Amino acid sequence: MENLIKACKEKGIVLPVELEDILNNCRSVTVFNSTDELAVAATGGAASQEFEVAYEVEGKGPVTEAIVHRVKNGVSANYTDPYMRRRDPDTMAIADDQPSDKERFADKYNYAFDDLRLDTFNWLKKQDLAMFFFFAGRDGIGAGGVAVAPANAAFFAMGLSMLQQIIPVDELPEGFGLKSIIYVAPPFRHTHFDGKQVVVHNRLKNVHEMFSYNLYPGPSAKKGLYGVLLSQGEKENWVTAHCSTVQVVSPYDNTTTFMHEGASGGGKSEMLQHIVREENGQILIGENTKTGERRLINIPLFCAFNPVTDDMALCHPSIQKKNGRLRVLDAENAWFIRVDSINQYGDDPFLEKITLKPPKPLLFLNIATTPGSTALVWDHIEDAPGKKCPNPRVILPRDIVPGVLDKPVSVDVRSFGVRTPPCSDEAPSYGILGLFHLLPPALAWLWRLVSPRGHANPSIVSTGGMESEGVGSYWPFATGEMVHHANLLLEQIVATPKVRYTLAPNQYVGVWKVGFKPQLLMREYLTRRGDAQLRPDQYQPARSSLLGYELNYLTIEGAKIPSRFLKVYRQPEVGEQGYDEGHRILMEFFKSEVRKFDNPALSSLGRRIIAACLNDATVEEYASLLGK
């Protein structure tokens, strides 16, 4: 350990005194230089195929957090507690006194964090530790960091090293800035937080400390470090967007780049998926949940596409060309892909193929495996007998994804995904969105401001009803102030007038079960059109002003989309009465959420847009506020 500290000092890398103290006084520390090394350590060594991640918890005795298997295609980890298999949206607490609208640790738990911070350091000193350096972000944009975890949690460290870029010690650049540190201490979940997932952010002057008191990567290794990037961007006035990005090429060589945003479950990863044909080669648009009718169309050729980002995109000033379009770059080194939609062989041939025999070890979570088996992405573990875990995952390194783009790309279309419930006249809901809608920029900003989480979210612990994730849908991961982020998002939209905005539901269109087909069919259609504008007779103001413009007709390669999928009030099971009640539900929700942003710190344009929403503005009024 003296050699590591000496090497850091020779390279001008300053380790915080608390970290040096831990490294000098812990039972042992292993410094890892690659994900492959962590994959070996995940099961306790190359000779072991099964490993139990367990801790002695004061007052409870030994507690097993996860069972880890070495499988032919990587490492598979399963949590013993079903609660740990999804992200709890209430994990964050802020320990510092810097500006923040988030709940402070002292207010949430009724005691100061200082003593727990010291207790965490003392616990780490009693452990065998794993440590590695990483970079959160890409191409020099982001934050350097170091992770410190108990050695028996190597599977967690493996996931972190895949999502961020692990850096070997001998490749650390001169003056490598440690802007973030992750300390992992799982037993405190039981001793201090009643078994809940908790991640504490402590923004010090020179370093952003993050204390992960659980072993699910979602709120810490993934979204926790997203929070570090957001904190950096808040200080420097740039955004890391919550989105997937894909460059799509039509059969006629039109190229269109989509940036698909949305709350958890909003279809970001799915925007990078292929459309799966039925056995007869047709495309299923949807199935009527009342009558069982299935509506299919024929599309002879699909567009080709190149993935760019899966969940996080850097919108840094250094990559902008100021050409009216937003330019983005992937903020991640790997993608945390949910595979709940893959229930049998053939549901997603691309993911099945790449995960069965990958060129490097993958990390599977919530997938049923046995030691030495092959992890199958459609074989999900059960939370209870007969009840599949809704959040099976695989971490996929972006450098093994065919056709992935490593350079910044210019965005043509920013779409926003909403997870919608079924809607009918007898059971109205906000599931009134048509296949897709066109939004004026002011309304596009409002949707990002509210960011509805939506129906039956599989990724997180929730009540299942409509909730808001807020500003840009990344607010659950941000540590700062809401209005500042709202201003940044609006400035971004104003500065990129050539970008078009759309809105797409997933799961249901009225009473029709559609899955993620709306956004995929939108991708096919708009790519074929390229820069060509829709004809004036093709769209009109939607019956609900929050939905912008609705389509009057839509034809893809000669296949006509029935109007019931474009205008939900045309469905006899919904009608105008059911639709209008759904609009009322949606409008009440929007008004309750946008009021949170109505304060003097918001830009004057932002306040005018919010006032328009509160006064039931028409689509034309939204368009007049910020261009069409």
UniProtKB/TrEMBL annotation:
Origin: domain of life: Bacteria
Alphabetical list of InterPro entries matching this protein: DUF4914
Q: Know the name of this protein? A: DUF4914 family protein
